[in-house]
Amino acid sequence: MTLSLAHILSARRTLRGVADATPFVPSPFMTKAAGQDFLLKLENMQPIGAFKLRGAMNAVMALPEGTAGVTCCSTGNHGRGVAYAAGLRGIRAVICMSELVPQAKVDGIRALGAEVRIKGRSQDEALAESLRLVKEDGLVEISPFDDPHVIAGQGTIGLEMLEARPDLHTILVPLSGGGLAAGVALAAKSINPDIRVIGVSMDRGAAMHLSIAAGHPVEVEEVASLADSLGGGIGMQNRLSFPLCRDLLDDTVLVTEDEIYHAMQVLFYEDRIVAEGACVVGLAAKLAGKVPAAEGPVGTIITGRNLDMTMFHDIMAGRDVQLGDVTVKGKPYGA
Ligand SMILES: *Cc1c(COP(=O)(O)O)cnc(C)c1O
């Protein structure tokens, strides 16, 4: 299947009334820092608190009549999207996650009525459990990123960004399995082939970045990160999101945990937005001088808000944060 703008336009019709257009607003602080209009696409305002509802909903609605149920592996937000969409269709959902997924995300999924399975310490182990359920219970697996309906659903974000600001010069996309980056880049470059799309990941376990560099999918060690939603591999059998990201992204850049920590403070103290570490990597990359200057407006996607509030309080207070065996040194904002 060759994905095109037509699939993204079709996804938008499917999503109408469930995952509608979100605001795309300038950040005055970031605009000053970037020397260009810097805009935030507020996907933290989706009903499940993350953009993943778009792809999940588009995939669940495409399933044939009589489908027994769905299953997926997830770092949390895709599972929440699938659970929500399955609830709207009235079918069973079993969400498989690793022990690295924060409790707040697990609780959110249970509250939507989905069944939850916690397996192992990696996305791969969660995926193995999901594939077992496909065999034994006849459920349909929905990949968090390597699925044409998921990619087309996420692509509707790119469509909205370019409709609101046809003059966008650069889009900074948080990058993990690459469903979001593939969809956004496909939409944006179909409308304006000259637009620059840059993927941003954390520097530990950046699966897509390393896979593009190697020319094929590679395995990464999964570690705890402030950007927990960006964890996990891209799948050694990746069919769609890897070639799309390889062909459509102009660059991929990496940010450190310290840079993510600081950018979370910036987004909260300057723009009063509560968001996950994964969402601020675009701001972090810009503030750290890791993306080249743009000759026009820059947009990034505030992908979700489903974070652990205790950790959020610690970061806003400038306290140290412990991530597995790594300590992110705290610093009060503005100090
Ligand atoms: C899933 C997710 C991403 C990354 O999306 P991919 O399609 O896996 O690259 C970014 N931010 C948040 C909050 C997410 O849940």
TrEMBL record:
Keywords associated with the record: Lyase, Pyridoxal phosphate
Any one GO biological process: isoleucine biosynthetic process
Domain Tryptophan synthase beta chain-like PALP: 21-304
InterPro entries associated with the record: Ectoine_EutB, Ser/Thr_Dehydratase, TrpB-like_PALP, TrpB-like_PALP_sf
Swiss-Prot/TrEMBL cofactor(s): pyridoxal 5'-phosphate
PANTHER family linked to this entry: L-THREONINE DEHYDRATASE CATABOLIC TDCB, THREONINE DEHYDRATASE, MITOCHONDRIAL-RELATED
Assigned protein family: Belongs to the serine/threonine dehydratase family.
Protein name: Threonine dehydratase
